[in-house]
Amino acid sequence: MPVMSSEFNVVKEVNALKITQSQFFNQRSQVLESAINGYCNVADFSVVQNEIQQKWVETMQAWMPMQGVTKGPINDLDLAWSIQFWPDKKNITGRKIAQLLQSQQKSWDAQQISEQSVAVRGLGALELLIFEQQLNAENCLLTTAIAEHLAENSQKITDIWSDQYAPALLQQSKIEKQQKAIELGLVAELSHQLSFINKKFALPMGNEHYRPYQAEAWRSESSMLQLKMSYQSLQEYFLKAVKPLLLQENETYLASSIEDTFTTLLNNWPIEASLKKLLSDQPGLKNLYHSKMSMDKLSYQLQEELPIALNIIVGFNATDGD
């Protein structure tokens, strides 16, 4: 029996991780859709909506590992913007939702939502409707249709990962000539996702003035909660997809150092879940800039030291700049 390459084993781990993450996102999306549908069918809008709001937060958290990906069904099907329209610097989501509600359309379904602007198809639109507006007689049909559309997209992602993308990547990893390309792809994905995550922190921090309304999930006041989940997901990806490559090259010190930076960043994460609140006073700002030190160190390690250690060149990140 031939000995499988280390890349083959790494790909098995990455496939398992991606499938698990996509299945969890799908499960949370389905639960959110069911909760919204049930609430709107009962139509007792005096009932507190905390449970639905929490289900949105959990669905958003389940989406975090898939942000900024360049490989797989999210990219191939061009679903990223439909699932999450961010950044939304001009509040396009708010304006488009207002237009749809003012149209007084009598019925909505997932197909009709798919024909609308990406700004109203996904998590950001649901956040506005659930947190800012609260579910009511005027917006329930629209909210239910958007949740249905989100659930359908999440199902597509998990189906294609399991049935198509994972088997193809595993087959590719068995071909010796493809193994360096796979290694490059794994590191490039890590770098690209890191750039996306860093932008989620940098954009609301601004250059000269703080911009709290540019933060992800500001309406639900869960920006820092979501950002922490992003770094936790990146840590998990590093451990399964990239650390084995470093150990293969005997780069044990760098591997350990990166792990320590992740640990420091996450262990010292601010307790406050709202980035907007942290930006509003000096203690909060102190916490944010303390976290930024670890973020900057992590970025240097993953985007500068790591490629050199593995003797690869990582290309331009599409998330760079605005």
Automatic annotation (TrEMBL):
Gene3D superfamilies per UniProt: M75 peptidase, HXXE motif
InterPro entries attached to this UniProt entry: Imelysin-like, Imelysin-like_IPPA, Imelysin_sf
Domain Imelysin-like: 30-269
Swiss-Prot/TrEMBL keywords: Lipoprotein, Signal
Chief location: other
Subcellular location, record wording: Cell envelope
Protein name (Swiss-Prot/TrEMBL): Lipoprotein
Source species of the chain: Psychromonas marina
Source species taxonomy: Bacteria, Pseudomonadati, Pseudomonadota, Gammaproteobacteria, Alteromonadales
